[in-house]
Amino acid sequence: MAKERVSMRKVKEILRLYWEEGLSRRQIAKSCNISRSAVSEYIARAEKAGLRHPLSEELDDATIEAKLFPKEEPTGKDIRPMPAMEEIHRELQKKGVTLQLLWLEYKDKYPGGINTASFASCTGNGSPHWV
């Protein structure tokens, strides 16, 4: 289950209590009714984003959120492209070519790619018995 973010109002309060009041993470967690690890995460994100006390009045909630939670670009191994169906069907017509061999070649090219069952089902060959 993914962690749910707290409101920007609460994030600002966490940072204020940490920077301005000098409270411990445990005290902040108790005050804001969230986990100590969540408090630590928000403080670490603020420090990594270069946010300092006091927060600039020019920074609105959307800007602060964008700094705390930047959109991460997928790396090469995170890309999960679908295989080219026409090419797979053409390759399967060749003698000695199997769906398992094509999947292994696909995984060499895209290590983070789709799994064997997804590969087989998207090619129309059902679930693979060679897994």
Model description:
There is one protein chain. This protein has 2 domains: 8-68, Orthogonal Bundle (Arc Repressor Mutant, subunit A), CATH 1.10.10; 77-122, no CATH class. 51% of the residues lie in helices and 0% in strands. It contains 7 helices and no strands. It has helices spanning 8-19, 25-32, 36-48, 61-68, 85-92, 99-109, 116-122. α1 (8-19) packs antiparallel against α2 (25-32) and α2 packs across α3 (36-48).
Quick recap of the structure?
The protein is built from 7 helices and no strands.
| Tally of contiguous helical segments | 7
Instruction: Calculate Rg over CA atoms.
Output: 24 Å
Give the termini separation.
28 Å
CATH topology group of the largest domain: Arc Repressor Mutant, subunit A
| Whole-number total of structural domains | 2
**Which architecture of the largest domain does the CATH hierarchy give at level 2?**
Orthogonal Bundle
Number of strands: 0
Report the sheet-strand fraction: under 5%
- Uncertain segments are none
Mean pLDDT: 81
Shape: elongated
Q: Characterize the largest beta sheet: strand count, sense, and whether it forms a barrel.
A: none
Name of the CATH class of the largest domain: Mainly Alpha
Fraction of residues in helix: 40-55%
H/E element string?
A: HHHHHHH
> What structural category do the secondary elements indicate?
mainly alpha
Question: Can you tag this structure with a few keywords?
Answer:
131 residues; mainly alpha; Arc Repressor Mutant, subunit A; 51% helix
